[in-house]
Amino acid sequence: MKTLFPNTKSAQSQPAPPPSGPPPSLFLTDRSHSLFTQLTAPPPLSPPNWLRSRTRRLFLVSLGVPIDLDEILPKSKQKKL
Question: Taking the model in full, what pTM does it have?
Fold first, then answer.
């Protein structure tokens, strides 16, 4: 253990050097800061369509409620008979 951690008590007894000046900025330029905030911002999302939701459909099927497939499935381009 002494070979891995020599003189651990002496390293703890030395005071830490005082910080000099303001802390360094994470970003080098204002442009890099702007790009970072754009990349980390959540994308604009539209609210989910509950009527066509897979979760709603599975929930109703599990309850045994009949589902109107016309409101769930996309409109067909074929002519009706």
Answer: 0.36
